[in-house]
Amino acid sequence: MPTHARQLLVIITEAALEKNLIKAARQHGAQGYTIYDVRGGGQHGTREDSWEADRSIEMKVICTQEVAQQLSQYILTTYCPHYSVSMFIAEVSVLRPEKY
């Protein structure tokens, strides 16, 4: 079965950015995304989801390398200086490349 290389961009950030990230993903050419409510902790403390302003999300975007690079650069310059954001990119193989 043939597979096709794509990038998985994962963004973990404050829930307040959800609508802005969706808009940015679409503007930078992403065909779709998946968003989860998440909790966790790290270098700057714990986000426990105990009240609305403390919620976090994880957004996953499978896309071309070009889209992943452009979108991640936009997020780095626009949101990282002002919000808690973690991001990573991983190589993935997809079976239906037209979806991504």
Brief account:
It holds the Pfam family P-II. GO terms for molecular function: enzyme regulator activity. By secondary structure, this protein is α+β, with helices and mostly antiparallel strands.
Q: What is the alpha-carbon Rg in Å? A: 14 Å
Give the tally of β-strands. Answer: 6
User: pLDDT under 50 segments (min length 5)?
Assistant: none
- Supply the CATH class: Alpha Beta
Secondary-structure class: alpha+beta
CATH architecture type: 2-Layer Sandwich
First CA to last CA: what distance?
18 Å
Main beta sheet strand tally, sense and closure: 4 strands, antiparallel
Count up the helices.
2
Strand content: 35-45%
Task: Please write the string of helix (H) and strand (E) elements.
Answer: EHEEEEHE
Keywords:
N-reg_PII-like_a/b; Alpha-Beta Plaits; 2 helices; alpha+beta; 100 residues; two-stranded antiparallel ribbon; 4-stranded antiparallel sheet
Protein model, in words:
- By secondary structure, the protein is an alpha+beta fold.
- The chain has one domain: Alpha-Beta Plaits (2-Layer Sandwich).
- It contains two helices and six strands.
- A four-stranded antiparallel sheet has the order 2-5-1-6, with helices on one face. The protein has a two-stranded antiparallel ribbon with strand order 3-4.
- A hairpin with a 2-residue loop joins strand 3 and strand 4.
- The two termini are 18 Å apart.
- The model has no long low-confidence stretch (mean pLDDT 92).
- InterPro entries: N-reg_PII (IPR002187), N-reg_PII-like_a/b (IPR011322), N-reg_PII/ATP_PRibTrfase_C (IPR015867).
- One of its GO terms (biological process) is regulation of nitrogen utilization.
- It comes from Parvibium lacunae.
- GO terms for molecular function: enzyme regulator activity.
- This is Transcriptional regulator.
